[in-house]
Amino acid sequence: MANFRGSFSSSYPFFLFFLLFAINGLALISADDHEISGSTRLELIHRNSRKLSEKVGLDVRPKSQIENIKRLHHRDVQRRLTVVSRRPKAIETAASVAMPLHSGSDFGTGEYFVEAHVGTPGQKFLLVADTGSELTWVKCNYNNCGRRRDCLRRIPNDKAVFSADRSSTFRPVVCSSRMCKTELSNLFSLARCPTNLSPCAYDYRYMEGSAALGIFAHETVSVVLTNGRKRQLTKVLIGCTKSVQDDQGSFKGANGVLGLGLGKNTFTSRVAEDFGGKFSYCLVDHLSPMNESSYIVLGQNRIKTPLLSRMQQTKLVLGGAYGSLYGVQVTGISVGNLLLNIPAPVWNVNRGGGAIIDSGSSLTFLAEPAYKLVTAEFNKFLSKYERLPEDGGPFEFCFNPKGYRESLVPRLKIHFANGAVFQPPVKSYILDVAPQTMCLGIVAASWPGISVIGNILQQNHLWEFDVEKGTLGFAPSSCT
To answer: Residue 258 forms beta bridges with which residues?
Structure first.
């Protein structure tokens, strides 16, 4: 599932499926012993980790690194569309929510799972964490039993399915409400309304043909603070999904989706009401051992992360043509000491271009005019190595690394507004994809079209998003 689901309609063409924090490797970030206030930790588990396979009793791992790369590309391609959504309102406070990420990088694809407790009493599920999704949903059984014990006894006790009737805080959204008719229309609420008190139904479609069908409701999600205390987030909008169409196996191993994108009804906007409109994450090397972890922090970051240099700041471009995505204002790309002559419209979202920073996409996509100039410059360096024939993978420039020296590779730099310069480590764009095979890990995107800075390029950096101020901070870090 790495990223890549786009929900479909002409007015809402793109729904990013999956994790804000879909990365291929992570490392533990320790909590600050002098933390002023608590923060909440939810465990995220990589889709292809052994840990997840053990939890669900399914082996969901790719058989090789090259198969993994091909899967990443297939899913990432589907992520490159535009979303229409609204910017969430948030109130900053001192506390924060920390969500541990567990690496499955030995087999990783870019999808991560969060263990969430839904309902009262809490029922535990594994949800795909998706930064582009505005809908949080769980596989669900709802019979409107009320307090009738005879009805409850007939409901199967399936731990993989949320039993809404057994939760005292489950409140369906009624189809006659303004929320159903207006606010949830961009989440594919259905027009049918048999009675005024009938639940508001949805048919949520994804790009590759998958779909989730069910009803909207408000529910309680329980979280645990970093100081060990428990906290309940009430009135979280969730989807009670009764039917899943999943011919592609996109939801294999998961019980649903945790919506982390921008929007009025996302999980992040609900958390922002209590903890503020900030979040951050730090991604270690995508080949890190699967048992290492880091954190997504929602709210003020009170997790101590060592930085290798000062934090730089640039603009976030939110809303408008970017919808629920996190847009950034790129001003140029340099390779070595050469600033490439990339046409300005490539970075202008109002002229067919633009760029986003997306931890849900593993690979980095550059719109064709930028891609051609970047790869042409790198090809001057790569031409000294044995060029390998294409094998159906996503990368155009692959070579035999015999004699390869990382210190000789030209440095890639992405220039942002306000003078900020992002210089990823070489290992983030010259990728070791198979035995005796290395590739320039950048993929062409159609033009006009959006460019995507994926999570492999983001690795070994702390990224801090301030939605309220519209800023993005970043600094190199080991993330440990």
So the answer is: 129
Q: Are strands 442-445 and 355-357 parallel, antiparallel or unpaired?
A: unpaired
The contacts of residue 440 (CB under 8 Å, 6+ apart) are 375, 378, 382, 395, 396, 397, 398, 429, 430, 431
pLDDT in tens, 37-86: 445 555 545 555 555 555 555 555 555 656 655 555 555 554 444 333 33
| Residue 370 and residue 352 in contact, taking contact as beta carbons nearer than 8 Å | no
pLDDT digits (tens, 9 = 90+) for 15-33: 333 333 333 333 233 333 3
Question: Is the alpha carbon torsion for 324, 330, 333, 337 positive or negative?
Answer: negative
Span(s) in the chain for CATH 2.40.70.10: 63-298, 305-476
For 402, other C-beta atoms within 10 Å of its C-beta total 8
By DSSP bridging, strand 398-399 and strand 412-416 are unpaired
Strand 437-440 vs strand 430-434: parallel, antiparallel, or unpaired? antiparallel
**Residues in contact with 34: Cβ distance below 8 Å, sequence separation at least 6, in sequence order:** none
What's the half-sphere exposure (Cβ side, CA atoms, 13 Å) at 400?
7
The one catalytic residue among 76, 106, 130, 466: 130
Q: Whole-prediction pTM value?
A: 0.75
- Please state, in angstroms and rounded to a whole number, the distance separating the CA atoms of residues 196 and 179: 13
Active site annotation includes 130: yes
247 is catalytic: no
Domain range 63-298, CATH class = mainly beta
Residues in Cβ contact with 329 at an 8 Å cutoff, skipping those fewer than 6 apart: 314, 315, 317, 347, 355, 416, 417
Asked if 236 and 270 count as a contact pair (C-beta separation under 8 A), the reply is yes
**Type of residue numbered 428:** S
Residue 416 has what pLDDT? Answer: 98
**Active-site residue, from 76, 106, 165, 358:** 358
For 350, counting Cβ atoms within 10 Å of its Cβ (0-12 exposed, 13-18 middle, 19+ buried), the class is: exposed
Q: Which CATH number fits domain 305-476: 3.10.560.10, 2.40.70.10, 2.170.130.10, 3.90.480.10?
A: 2.40.70.10
Write down how long the chain is: 480
